[in-house]
Amino acid sequence: MIKNTGVRRRRYRCAEACSTCKRRKEKCSGNRPCARCIERGVHVTCRSEPRQPSTRFTESYNLNREGSVAVESASRDPNVQDGRPQESLYPLGLVMSNASTTSVLETSRLIQDTKGKYMFIGDSADLSLLQNICSLVGASIGPCAFVEDPFRYQMVESAPEGPATWLHARDHQHPAKPSFDEAVYLIRRYIMATNCVLDLFDESDLLDNVANWLDNHSDHTSVLSAIYYLVFAIGAQTCPEDKDALAKVYFDYGRYLTASYFMEDPIIPTVQAYAMITMYLLGASRRNAAFMYLGTAVRAAYALGLHRSDIAGLFTPAEIKTRERVWKVMRILDLFMGASLGRPPSTEETRNTELDENYSPSVDLCAIFEKILTDIYAKRMISTDTVQKISQHHRRWTAHFQTGLDTDRIKDEEFLEGRLPNIGLIHVQEAYYWTIILLTRPFFVEYVSSRIALKSQNCGDGERSPDPLRSSHRIQVHACVNSAISTVNMLRKLLGFDGIPKRLPFVVNSIFVSGLVLGLSYFGDLYKTYPLDDSLGTALKLLALFSQDAVAKRNLAILESLLDACRIYVQKEAKENMAIHSQLVSGMFGQIHTEDDKEDSGTTNTPEGDQSSVGNIEDQLRRPAVFNRMEPHDATDQGLTSVSTVGSSGSVGLNTLDRPEINNLNLEAMAAPPTFQDDISMLPPMSPRTLWFGSYEDNVPLFSMIDARDFLE
């Protein structure tokens, strides 16, 4: 037992602790970066925030780290007045702790819509990942077009200008009903585009009743009329022909009938109509409006008890089937909106979705989405046990999903009649890969962020930097990147068809998420492991197919800008590695070019706009740094399999720092012109041996003499 000597030890406190140490309640050295942040490998996020006087009526919005937007005070921050919230210096999505648990900052996230209003965007949102990537890219290569995108804090929303005109549809003549052939065509286009995600009706039922509905010229206000007008609207909106104007006419009248006659009457057709309104608005790039209409549909579904399966005995088998289908659609739309916008789900599953009887892969996949959103993103914490439980559910799903495709009315074929792609099967598969990306994204973002932080440190002591990727988390990083590549490869088949729907919001979302993951993979040096060039290029081509979709066009512009940033990074890495080897070569063989000549040649070969981000290689070489030992291929420093690939854009898997005997050299010691003795010591021991300069073939033909005049004639 240690006795108290009565001498009190004086405590020294720094004048201003960094925000990270304040949040973690740890002792801070007061430096920038502080010792604790350097030790934890997050020194790029080390900063101190000036204390602001508390004001009772001051608004304070903090956008989460992964969203990387922080609006401290709308009244204090001049950037907010210009629609440019202050960018956060916290690029990490989730921080790995020693207890295998990851926590997120207790902050909220906002983003501007087209009218300048702030909308909530949560942790799982695509835009949150985008802002996170902007922070990481800026920390890696500095300012570029991708980082300084003026629209990076805005959400694409194709909201109509002025007051809504559909409310006055009764004042105008109802739209003319289509012909029978056109009605059949629009119904089939509706079924094709919404297969799996909007499974409300059987195609045969719609086709059998459409003739009677078309012949009844006096029926314009019935439930059936609202349903058919909305079906025609989605069919015209998604067909490859230009029928957008016709789609809007049908949609406005169908929405008018729904709001005027069925809004206050919670019946099954009401839920079906509002679900179709939600789907149409998603295709029209109006996600916030779709989110609001979905809320009405969900409340009506709960009012009808669709969330409970134990009351099925009160209904006929046909009614039970309809109720289950409508609830499944509610779940699909709700989980898609919740995951893509980062907003809390409005539905909760009470059924056992893994039962073999009437097994639905779509419903079971929604249960996986719900676990990820509620157990990880809602709690803002992730643990190894949670990942293992959800991954076990993934394995059970993959073992059973093909047996339940009939329940979801999805054919187990890659192509349908007419050699068109099976959109229903595509919807199921891309959702499966998206769940994996959502689950593993925090580990992937943390890996890339830690790797960027380690590269910016000066390891002058010659010791190996800590591994930014734990061995237990390597598979999560692989799973995230592999799922993104698998998504693109699975959707590649769409490039060979002309008759695919021109609006597929679920598919567009998966392409964009996969493209963001692929782009961020470059900055984790994973281009040396995976064929990122080919996959990212394919993602751009896929988004170009949906040029009628405003969200898809915006996503395409973002990925194109991200690809340019990736090329700058790869070129920067190549120049740094080439400079290192040039030092070694000039040390052994000398050099005939001066330092100024090298700088001039480097500037000449640098594309316009890249000089600021690539930087001066000679200045980097003069830094007091020791290059640490690495295993073959830089990416394998985190246990990643090395596969050198060459992409279409010319990005080659560079492994110029792969030899341990080279990487352990102190380049600062080589700043002075080395002697030959110094350089010969770098060569491996070699015994005298005979060199054979010819080929190893048995019969080597001799070269014959040719008269040069034969070439001049």
TrEMBL record:
GO terms for cellular component: nucleus. SUPFAM superfamilies: Zn2/Cys6 DNA-binding domain. Keywords: DNA-binding, Metal-binding, Nucleus, Transcription, Transcription regulation. Residues 17-48 form the Zn(2)-C6 fungal-type domain. One of its GO terms (biological process) is positive regulation of transcription from RNA polymerase II promoter by galactose. Residues 594-618, 633-655 are annotated as: Disordered. Residues 602-615 have a biased composition (Polar residues). InterPro entries: Fungal_SecMet_Regulators, XnlR_reg_dom, Zn2-C6_fun-type_DNA-bd_sf, Zn2Cys6_DnaBD. Residues 639-655 have a biased composition (Low complexity). Pfam families: Fungal_trans, Zn_clus. CDD domains: fungal_TF_MHR, GAL4. This is Zn(2)-C6 fungal-type domain-containing protein. It comes from Cladophialophora immunda.
